[in-house]
Amino acid sequence: MNAEPEPMRPPLMQIGDIHTYYGKSHVLYGVSLEVGRGEVVGLLGRNGVGKSTTLKAIMGLVRPSQGTVLFEGQSVTHMQSDKLARLGIAYVPEDRRIFRLLTVTENLRTGLDRHGVTDSRKKELLEKIQHYFPVLAERRNQAGGTLSGGEQQMLAIARAMMLEPKIILLDEPTEGLMPRMVSQVRQIVDVLHGEGVAILLVEQNVPLTLEVSQRIYLMEKGTIKHHALASELRVTDAVIHQYLGV
Q: pTM of the full predicted structure?
């Protein structure tokens, strides 16, 4: 007898027909996308088209006026950000928002102060982060505000990893970084992917996004205009030039 086929699992996250406003300004016009378990998905577009707003709408920082956000098949639309984090959704904003006066270790520990995390597990997570980010281990007693831009970005992502998320919403991780630091961001994304963490990546660096992503959404004027496998796109493609002007 043939075995029954396993039922298809739903995507980890689905965003359906999201509309948002800033005051009276209509910003997102029916944005729909999805991210599979352990998948890296890139969201590309020119500045001001609504990419960061999409992440904020997912995290409840901007209230969608219409549409749904599903996580593991359940609606989390309008759920508060702290509850989303407990479900396994981490968010690294463009401005990083590290605690500048706290040390590196103290910043990391803010991601550990949650119910059910034993002292031994906290120690394991800190050791894992120090393994993946040795520079943070070296700077562990240094104030977050004294780190370089690239080191602050590492710290922001490492702090998100302390939550043991199922997905990270990563907003412009290479913004303001020197070219030599961009390769470190690439390595960080590879680490997350290797850990089985899904990523929704908003980024202006097109070559990097095409390299690390499995699928790409292209956005224009608050809507998704194109969707393709990253392997099907090149920086020189007409569709990339149309929506990003590169």
A: 0.89
C-alpha neighbours within 13 Å on the C-beta side of residue 212: 32
What is d(CA 142, CA 51) in angstroms, rounded to the nearest whole number? 33
Q: Which two tokens stand for residue 237?
A: 């493609």
Query: Tens digit of pLDDT per residue, the chain (246 long)?
Result: 344 444 457 899 999 999 999 988 999 999 999 999 999 999 999 989 999 999 999 999 999 999 999 999 999 998 999 899 889 999 998 877 888 899 998 998 887 777 777 888 888 888 888 888 888 889 999 999 899 888 888 889 888 888 889 999 999 988 877 777 788 788 888 888 888 999 999 998 899 999 999 999 999 999 999 999 999 988 778 888 888 875
* Contact call for residues 184 and 150 (beta carbons, < 8 A): yes
Domain coordinates in residue numbering, the chain: 13-98+150-244
CATH number for region 13-98+150-244? 3.40.50.300
Alpha-carbon distance of 15 to 35, in angstroms, equals 9
* Residues 219, 227 contacting (CB under 8 angstroms): no
Q: How many CB atoms lie within 10 A of CB 162?
A: 22
